[in-house]
Design brief:
The chain contains 13 helices and 16 strands. The protein is α/β, with parallel strands linked by helices and about 450 residues long. It has a five-stranded parallel β-sheet with strand order 4-3-5-6-7, sandwiched between helices. Strands 9-8-10-11 form a four-stranded parallel β-sheet, sandwiched between helices.
Length: about 450
């Protein structure tokens, strides 16, 4: 959905604790939206959440608009993600989001309302994400953001959304920085922490290669920092070692061959492919046949669609999973997966799109967002965040059976903390090590 309008930004130049919120709410929404005319307009000063943390303080929002984007009939959400350029593979997430909300709208909506989703393309460029988010908040007047993709992209808007008290939910990146809920209570991650990914990998290596020598390909950004810092921390007190690291710029190059060639000259027995977007599967093409390493790809690189770009070089690699895989014949028997494969095709996806995996991520984000929207008694921005920081729910969407959505204020800000290790075998992911729960521990694996 594309809209062209002008937007303006207003700032309040008051005291240090007086932070701004955009003026001009949707006409009549306070009287229409549930909780819109409550005493403090859907928020409180120092709302208590589980864990004793006073996270959501709407009193510091100078022009707090608790129900902007909400009426008694609709909820307007917004997102920004790449739909073109080298990271366009992630555009399938938007297709999954749209399919999920279309399905829910046909079955009574979410929280008794129809969901409207406004989306803009940012090509994975942080400056465009910033422009898009300001447009969504100030011009389209969305209630909340959902599944904005990219670490730098979210960092670029985090202060703005925090100052303006706009929820940034289901953030589609696992940066460990999302673990600072006390400092940034208006942002919540939607996938496992990248630090937790590395912890699950290292725990698996303890089983199969306790003296592993690790070579790391990483991006020259916060995503790359997360992998490297965590690996360094997690190998300090065991017999593993990071023996080689190479860095590349994901925005300036689509070819990592030179970096892989250098890593292959090391004595590594494990290769952590920390690339993302199309660079990740393309990197698998450059791994020399004579380099006998166990190769790991990240949770953002293990869809059927992404691996279709690997040129047949994905056999035997490993990854982590938190969710069901629509391309896996065993997972296709799960009722939640059957529902996705049936209903997503009825609501905009092709059969191939549903099975390629990226759209399933968007479907999962939609289910996660719906769960959070339906949790608070009053549908206001403040109450949404308060509820989000004290969640205890069974698996939703395509989460693997037995996993849960749990948060506990700043003590445990991560929604998803259960992962299994899978190995690519005959074109499918096969479990190599079962689901392991790290509830409340993700921040312990961050490193520096």
């Amino acid at each position: 959905m594309t809209r062209t309008r002008t937007w303006r930004r207003s700032r309040l130049l008051a005291g240090a604790l007086s932070l701004t919120m955009i003026a001009a709410a949707c006409g009549g929404r306070d009287s229409e939206a549930k909780g819109g005319d409550s005493g403090d307009e859907g928020g409180s000063s120092g709302t208590e959440v589980a864990g004793g943390q006073s996270l959501v303080d709407t009193s510091i929002c100078a022009d707090y608009q608790p129900t902007q984007g909400v009426t008694d009939k609709t909820i307007k959400l917004g997102t920004s993600m790449p739909q073109s350029g080298p990271f366009a593979v992630f555009g399938g997430i938007l297709n999954g989001l749209n399919a999920y909300f279309d399905w829910r709208n046909d079955n009574g909506g979410v929280a008794g309302r129809q969901v409207e989703l406004v989306a803009y393309d940012d090509e994975y460029k942080a400056d465009r994400t910033s422009d898009n988010v300001k447009k969504l908040v100030e011009e389209d007047k969305v209630f909340a953001l959902v599944s904005v993709l990219g670490t730098q992209n979210n960092l670029g808007v985090r202060d703005y959304l925090d100052e303006n008290c706009v929820p940034d939910m289901g953030v589609a990146t696992g940066s460990p920085q999302w673990g600072d809920a006390a400092q940034y209570p208006w942002l919540q991650g939607g996938i496992p922490s990248y630090a937790l990914e590395m912890k699950r990998l290292v725990d698996y290596l303890e089983e199969v290669q306790p003296d592993a020598k690790i070579a790391l390909l990483r991006q020259n950004d916060d995503f790359g920092d997360a992998y490297e810092n965590s690996l360094n921390l997690l190998t300090e007190k065991n017999d593993m070692e990071v023996v080689a690291t190479e860095t590349y710029d994901p925005l300036a190059s689509t070819d990592t061959k030179a970096q892989v060639d250098k890593l292959a000259q090391s004595d590594a027995t494990v290769f952590v492919n920390g690339a993302s977007g199309s660079q990740c599967p393309n990197t698998l093409k450059f791994v020399p046949k004579e380099w006998k390493v166990l190769t790991y790809v990240g949770i953002t690189c293990n869809s059927k669609l992404a691996l279709s770009l690997a040129g047949g070089n994905e056999e035997g690699i490993i990854s982590t999973q938190a969710t069901l895989d629509p391309a896996n014949t065993e997972d296709q028997k799960d009722p939640a997966m059957q529902e996705f494969l049936t209903e997503s095709v009825k609501h905009g996806l092709t059969k191939d799109e549903a099975e390629l995996g990226v759209a399933a991520i968007g479907w999962g984000f939609g289910a996660q967002m719906a769960e959070l929207l339906e949790s608070p008694k009053e549908l206001t921005r403040g109450d949404l965040m308060t509820s989000a920081w004290s969640t205890d729910a069974d698996a939703v969407g395509l989460m693997r059976p037995g996993s849960k959505l749990i948060t506990d204020g700043a003590k445990d800000p991560w929604l998803l903390e259960s992962l299994r290790i899978v190995k690519r075998t005959d074109g499918q992911w096969v479990e190599a090590s079962p689901m392991k729960d790290y509830n409340g521990q993700s921040n312990d694996f961050v490193g520096s």
